[in-house]
From TrEMBL:
Annotated GO CC locations: Golgi apparatus
Single Gene Ontology BP annotation: Golgi organization
InterPro entries, per database record: TANGO2
Family matches, as PANTHER family: SER/THR-RICH PROTEIN T10 IN DGCR REGION, TRANSPORT AND GOLGI ORGANIZATION PROTEIN 2 HOMOLOG
Source organism of the structure: Hymenochirus boettgeri
Coiled coil: none
Lineage: Eukaryota, Metazoa, Chordata, Craniata, Vertebrata
Pfam families for this protein: TANGO2 (PF05742)
Domain of life from the UniProt record: Eukaryota
Protein name as catalogued: Transport and Golgi organization protein 2 homolog
Length: 201
């Protein structure tokens, strides 16, 4: 299942602390053709992987822009997928190209959430006027949630649903974060990769 762990720290006290630390995988739909993360050919401000499946080209599941916009998507686990509805990958791509702030964008998305199979969407703005990170789950509350600083885990259910695998990974992630200011960026990346490769429990 797809998993995202992240720490949101909009006002770090230490100069060498990070405003966002994130680790994510895409652990489903292996057969679907896609491009690895790179800057878009038609917009070199945006970095993401890209869906290349016929009819869903240009969608993505995680991306960031040079202007400080960030978005990530996970599918919501549901018993039956409706193949007639809109592709969810456009939700991330549309935010990255939008001029809307994260909350306003998710507010708009929430009005149309029923047009898609179940999903979770994180959207964020990192800029000089202040950082904001928001969440919307189409099978949860009607309104987007403005996230407080903290450590979060997201998989194929609502944000921080206490699934065993998610809780275990979140603890491993939090342990790495505690020492993030005392290790190099390269070592931090390697430690996060180890967390995502962990197969227990």
């Amino acid at each position: 299942m797809c998993i995202i762990f992240f720490k949101f720290n909009p006002r770090p006290v230490s100069k060498n602390a990070y405003r966002l630390i994130l680790a994510a995988n895409r652990d489903e739909l292996y057969h679907r053709p896609s491009k690895p993360a790179d800057f878009w050919e038609n917009n070199n401000e945006i970095l993401s992987g890209l869906d290349m499946e016929t009819g869903k080209e240009g969608g993505t599941w995680l991306g960031i822009t040079k202007r400080g916009k960030f978005a990530a998507l996970t599918n919501y686990l549901q018993p039956k997928i409706d193949i007639q509805v809109k592709g969810r990958g456009a939700l991330v791509a549309n935010f990255l190209t939008s001029d809307l702030d994260s909350f306003s964008y998710l507010k708009n998305v929430s009005a149309d959430g029923h047009l898609y199979n179940g999903f979770n969407l994180i959207a964020a703005d990192f800029n000089s006027s202040g950082d904001a990170m928001c969440y919307y789950g189409s099978r949860g509350a009607k309104e987007p949630l403005i996230l407080s600083p903290g450590v979060y885990g997201l998989s194929c259910s609502l944000l921080d649903t206490p699934w065993k695998k998610l809780e275990h990974g979140k603890k491993l992630f939090a342990d790495i974060i505690k020492k993030s200011q005392n290790i190099s960026r390269e070592d931090l990346v390697q430690e996060l990769i180890k967390v995502m490769n962990n197969e227990e429990p």
